[in-house]
Design brief:
The complex is a heterodimer.
Chain A: H1 5-29, E1 34-51, H2 53-60, E2 65-77, E3 85-90, E4 98-108, E5 111-124, E6 136-149, E7 155-176, E8 179-200, E9 206-218, E10 221-229, E11 238-242, E12 245-261, E13 265-290, E14 296-324, E15 327-352, E16 356-381, E17 385-401, E18 409-425, E19 428-439, E20 450-463, E21 466-478, E22 487-500, E23 506-527, E24 531-554, E25 557-568, E26 575-589, E27 592-605, E28 615-627
Antiparallel strand pairs in A: 1-2, 1-28, 2-3, 3-4, 4-5, 5-6, 6-7, 7-8, 8-9, 8-10, 9-12, 11-13, 12-13, 13-14, 14-15, 15-16, 16-17, 17-18, 18-19, 19-20, 20-21, 21-22, 22-23, 23-24, 24-25, 25-26, 26-27, 27-28
Chain B: H1 2-26, H2 40-46, H3 48-56, H4 58-66, H5 68-72, H6 74-79, H7 83-87, H8 100-106, H9 108-117, H10 119-123, H11 129-132, H12 150-155, H13 159-164, E1 172-173, E2 176-177, H14 190-197, H15 202-205, E3 217-218, H16 220-225, H17 247-252, H18 267-270, E4 281-282
Antiparallel strand pairs in B: 1-2, 3-4
Helix pairs in contact in B: 2-3, 3-4, 8-9
Classes of the chains: A mainly beta, B mainly alpha.
């Protein structure tokens, strides 16, 4: 298991701070005559993993330890009326990869305050290759706050504030002097955003205008991570690596949404303008020892000053007209124009014991994408049934390049769709749709110029607490043999059955789904010197997933269990995955429950070369829950 | 050909704005006179438990915060005028299961925005509001007044997506998959505007802020078609949620002109990111050798 010591300490301080802030707010913001309701649940989880626990943690993020299942507190005046204060939290304690906390306070006069906190922890390890002993570990924390004034009858005013930071590290290769080394990238990234919104409440037209300002800062630092080069190379030249530099991006965004609806027209439109300005400053220094330092050292210093700007203008308008007798026409248009311009000024310098060289450079580039779409759709609705069909036309202009190249692409495309639905009684609700589309120029050689899809859903409430469902999806995308002979096909199908008794004290559910994906694309494989061999990229999957669950209440006992089986039986990395869980909750006093649970997870790769990824994980836990 | 399609888009936008104007004119159309109302207190004389639970729930709280009149009308806003039912209580003279129109009479912004975000939901007449939400006569299993957790509610129809989120590499919070509403909105709101207007992948960047750009040297697939050009958002068998099992396989499908010095028989070249580490975009190197 990867070491988490440094990370955990940081996390615990923060967890304590967050809980302290929230509980402190709870204590001070509510008067003594408060009528409290709430729930507290906490427990401990034991975990036993045989096989590769790093793969288990990479996939699920679960660990042993304490966990706060739930913490909820709400206040409403004894005399009745709206709830004025609420707080909730979950996940703190270390056994879960995510933590969540949220509180709100209705201060009267239409004022409402909220504060939210989320922390997501990421662990990633791939057991094969040169990095099999290293683990990426990082966490994103998100703070969200809002102030809402709803005391004005005509409109609601909202100020939203967000703060996000990402800390931790990942390991990567670093290439220098024809050799590859392990490098550690320490993350130091933040995002701050303030957004003001005004929404109408009483006008015939709903209007929402938001002005946001966002600032991203990124100050990641690299350092050597291993005394040995990667891939079995023995000569270790790298003796120093530093990247003191900063990227800062400012993004003001304006957004307008309009919506109107009456008995015969339903119109909505949204418009956006965003401009992003990025400045990047700093340098990178890598130092290599020549002949283990006996000859001296060579330092490569790249001093860089870059800037980039991006303008996005976008609009969507959809309008549906009810023509009478169940007929309606929808007209829709989308427009998106994004342009990016960038330039970079720099100096590459080589400094050795005996001589120094430097070279200045300037590099400019641009990248513009303009998309447009128009759609018309005609629909006939009857009593519990509908038929529809439509046509859409699209255009995409891409232009990107620099002083030397301009590989611009102008593409137009069109497509049509037809579908129907039947929902006359809850006993049979069905819908199906077919879509077909094509275009005439390629931005990438793998773009499919012909795409078709078909989707089908069926749901049925049979009475007696029974419900069944079925669904299917088929998607095919291809392009001509002389482009890349791309053939992509995906099909999935599934069934659902569920039953619950009249009181809701017992029930079960069953699902079974299949998913087949077939992909092939012509490519070229570079081999040995100057040889490039025609090659076909093939990726197929064939997944079967079956799941069942049930619950029953027997006196003071609440029992539930679930079982899921997943298997990929394609010729690429066949794998079998079992998940099972059982949970028993017993009411021990009024509002109080003791909960016992057990979980099982297994992951078994069938290829010999990949069996090192296999794991069998068992988790057992107990928690105490109190509702008041 | 291209000009013709632009014309279609222009005509579409024109008609849509025309529709808005006509709709505003139609807003003053005379309304039919409503039958007599009896008020919430009359309903509560028989349906005491339901009325009490409703007023203590999110609907009741919101209505109380707005006005006393709204509370008084709360039952009949959805179940229709109760005069006849109060005189002769039976199942035929009251709206037992409210239709979508009842919900949309208050949640009118959701109605209009739904046209932008999810025409599929609107077009199939399914789901109805009460297929996903509960009215609030009892505590709801999930917010906002959802009949179950969002992933379960959506999974009733989108089971293939729910199933793919059980694959080994997915967006997951511990045991549970991400809720669908972390990225999607069922009705459309500002975030949906952000998702569609900023292009595919923009919703990913609300969490993965470090890849938001703009970059001096962007990677064209991400800039044009977004993250899904290389990643599978709902779940996959491949580490890093890539569309292909190996990085080389992913990259070589587009980069067929890669030079022969990249000898793919050597381990060093089997993972393109060994050297091209700024794969999402770089501010320092045209070949994405640096971030």
């Amino acid at each position: 298991m990867g070491t988490l010591k440094e990370f955990k300490v940081k996390g615990r301080h923060l967890m304590g701070a967050v809980l302290g802030v929230l509980l402190g707010a709870a204590a001070f913001s509510v008067p003594l005559y408060a009528q409290w309701t709430g729930e507290i649940g906490a427990g401990y989880v034991w975990q036993n993993v045989t096989g590769n626990d790093n793969v288990f943690i990479s996939q699920y993020g679960l660990r042993p330890g304490w966990v706060l299942d739930t913490f909820e507190l709400a206040y409403a005046p004894k005399a009745g009326g709206p709830q004025t204060f609420g707080i909730e939290a979950s996940g703190f304690g270390g056994a879960m990869p995510d933590q969540h906390a949220f509180m709100f306070f209705n201060a009267g006069g239409g004022w409402r305050f909220t504060l939210g906190y989320d922390r997501q922890y990421s662990f990633f390890n791939v057991p094969v290759g040169s990095f099999k002993h290293e683990n990426d570990q990082w966490a994103i924390q998100r703070w969200k706050g809002s102030v809402v004034w709803d005391g004005w009858s005509a409109a609601r005013l909202t100020l939203n504030l967000r703060y996000t930071d990402r800390t931790g590290y990942s390991y990567r290769p670093f290439f220098g002097m024809s050799t590859q080394y392990a490098m550690k990238d320490d993350y130091d990234q933040t995002m701050k955003e303030a957004a003001f919104r005004i929404e109408t409440k009483t006008l015939p037209v709903y209007i929402s205008f938001e002005q946001a300002y966002t600032r991203y800062e990124r100050n990641d630092q690299w350092s050597p991570a291993s005394p040995y080069p990667l891939y079995g190379q023995t000569q270790n030249w790298l003796v120093g690596l530093q990247t003191p530099r900063e990227d800062k991006t400012n993004v003001p965004t304006s957004r307008l949404i309009l919506a109107y609806r009456n008995d015969w027209v339903d119109v909505a439109g949204s418009f956006l303008y965003a401009k992003a300005d990025m400045d990047s400053t700093g340098y990178r220094t890598s130092t290599y020892a020549i002949q283990q330092g006996t000859v001296g050292q060579a330092s490569y210093i790249d001093t860089l000053l870059g800037s980039g700007s991006s303008d996005t203008r976008a609009a969507n308008v959809d309008a549906t007209f009810q023509l009478g007798s169940g007929w309606s026409v929808t007209l829709a248009g989308d427009y998106n124009d994004a342009t990016e311009d960038a330039n970079i000024y720099g100096t590459n310098a080589v400094v050795t014991k005996y001589a120094s060289f430097s070279q200045q450079f300037v590099d400019n580039s641009y990248f513009d994408v303009k998309d447009g779409m128009g759609r018309i759709e005609v629909m006939k609705k009857g009593n519990g049934w509908g038929l529809w069909g439509g046509y859409q036309a699209l255009s995409r202009n891409i232009s990107y390049g620099d002083f030397y190249v301009d590989p611009s692409v102008k593409r137009t495309g069109d497509g049509w769709f037809v579908g129907g639905s039947w929902s006359k009684t809850p006993a049979l609700v069905v819908d199906a749709e077919y879509q077909h589309g094509t275009f005439d120029n390629y931005a990438f050689r793998t773009d499919p110029d012909l795409a078709q899809s078909f989707v089908f859903h069926l749901n049925s409430r049979l009475g007696g607490g029974w419900q069944i469902g079925a669904r299917a999806r088929w998607v095919q995308a291809t392009n001509p043999d002389d482009i890349s002979e791309t053939r992509r096909q995906a099909q999935s199908a599934g069934v659902t059955a569920a039953w619950t008794n009249a009181k809701g004290t017992a029930g079960f559910g069953f699902t079974a789904d299949t998913l087949q994906i077939k992909n092939r694309t012509n490519a070229f494989l570079p081999l040995h010197g100057l040889v490039r061999v025609p090659w076909v990229s093939v990726y197929n999957t064939d997944v079967l997933a079956i799941g069942t669950n049930g619950h029953i209440k027997l006196g003071r006992w609440n029992l539930d269990a679930d079982l899921a089986y997943l298997r990929n039986s394609s010729n690429y990395e066949p794998v079998t995955n079992w998940n099972a869980g059982v949970r028993a909750a017993v009411d021990v006093f009024k509002g109080g429950q003791v909960i016992l649970f057990g979980q099982y997870r297994s992951y078994v790769q069938e290829w010999d070369a990949l069996t090192m990824e296999n794991y069998y994980a068992r988790r057992y836990g107990v928690s105490l829950r109190w509702r008041f | 050909m291209a000009r013709g399609r632009f014309s279609i888009a222009a005509v579409t936008l024109g008609l849509a704005l025309g529709g808005l104007s006509l709709g505003l004119l139609g807003a003053d159309a005379p309304k039919a006179k409503a039958p007599a109302l009896v008020g919430e207190e009359t309903c509560a004389t028989c349906h005491e438990d339901q009325a009490k639970a409703f007023l203590a729930g999110p609907h009741g709280i919101k209505m109380a915060a707005r006005s006393k009149t709204m509370v008084a009308e709360s039952c009949e806003r959805c179940h229709g005028p109760g005069g006849a039912h109060a005189d002769d209580p039976n199942k035929t003279n009251i709206v037992r299961f409210p239709k979508d129109e009842a919900c949309l009479s208050c949640h009118n912004s959701a109605a209009g925005l739904m046209a932008i975000s999810l025409p599929g939901h609107a077009r199939t007449q399914f789901p109805k509001c009460l297929d996903c939400h509960v009215p609030g006569h009892a505590p709801a299993p999930a917010k906002p007044l959802l009949a179950d957790q969002p992933a379960v509610v959506c999974g009733k129809c989108h089971g293939d997506v729910l199933m793919s989120m059980k694959l080994p590499y997915t967006h997951r919070k511990g045991n549970e998959p991400f809720q669908c509403t972390a990225c999607h909105t069922a009705h459309g709101d500002n975030r949906t505007g952000r998702m569609r207007q900023m292009g595919p992948g923009a919703v990913c960047l609300t969490c993965h802020t470090e890849m938001s750009g703009p970059y001096v040297f962007p990677h064209p697939p991400r800039a044009i078609d977004g993250c899904v050009q290389c990643h599978t958002a709902h779940g996959t068998l491949n580490p890093m949620m890539l569309n292909r099992p190996s990085v080389a396989q992913q990259c070589l499908e587009c980069h067929t002109t890669v030079t022969s010095r990249h000898d793919i028989t050597k381990p060093m070249y089997q993972n393109c990111q060994n050297c091209h580490i700024g794969i999402h975009g770089s501010n320092h190197n045209r070949f994405l050798l640096d971030e």
